[in-house]
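Hi L.,

As promised, CDP-alcohol phosphatidyltransferase:
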Amino acid sequence: METTTTPRPLAEEPEKTSAFEHSLKSNDTEEQIDIWFYRPIGYQIALFCAKVGIRPNPVTIISIFFGVAAGILFYPQNLWINVIGMLSLMFANSLDSADGQLARMTNDKSRFGRILDGVAGDFWFIAIHIAICLRSMEEGWSAWIWVPGVVAGASHMIQSAMADYYRNVHLFFIKGTNGSELDNSRDLQREYDEMSWTRQFGMKIVARLYLNYTKEQEFFSPKLQKLLAVVKEKYQNGLPAKLITDFRAQNKPLMKYTNIVQFNTRVIFLFLWLFLDQSWIYFFFDIFILNPILIYMVVKQEQVSNHFYKEITAGKYNG
């Protein structure tokens, strides 16, 4: 596993707007709801944390408690308690924004932090799925409600993994390795094999989980893997400017699908069904609405990857 980058002091920026934008990954991959709501809140939290010396990983851990609390508060059939849960989940997501913004502002980045950030969301939604299943059984559903609950949970994990992967691929092409958190299973496997079970037991388990996560992303994107392999082989000193421009033009429109299958869309509908006291619909929305969007997203990304693989191997971007 890579070591944590030494934090640097918060950089002085001449304008607040530019400092805020510097805390974002990229406008290409940001959702409007995040830019308008969650990122500004996260930025203020990140500024406070930077001033008092709180690092990104503790912020992520705190977000887990608020996200899990939200799931617990969705269990009772009491709208006001559910609303408190909604606010708790929104605050958890603001903290999730803050940890990444803080890491970029202070250059306090690590692979462990990235893994922890991804695991945090899983904890939130595991709690939410359990709460909805238990709530549904109290409303008269049989134990069979756990079947769509588990299927929806597995679907959510794949949707989030692929959306995160495609975002990082996009950032890799437009920003390079410094602006992306793109990993590959070959390098991760080598690092995992070098770790000791006796001296690094906990980290080795984490590394194994992250390796499996990355292999899953690669399994669903074979043509993208061919593209990344040829890019790594041919452009060791950096990508040609025209390739960056052309890839961004074709791939940027697909970023909206990565946003749809992640947090905001699913939570808006989850809140709606909680208000209607029909929370069980959330599972079927995940399975029958978001999964087709996931499939479409994967197919389109594979088409873009295949196009650029052919263009590169044909010599179009040799100059």
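The mean pLDDT is 91.

Thanks again for sending the construct details.

K.
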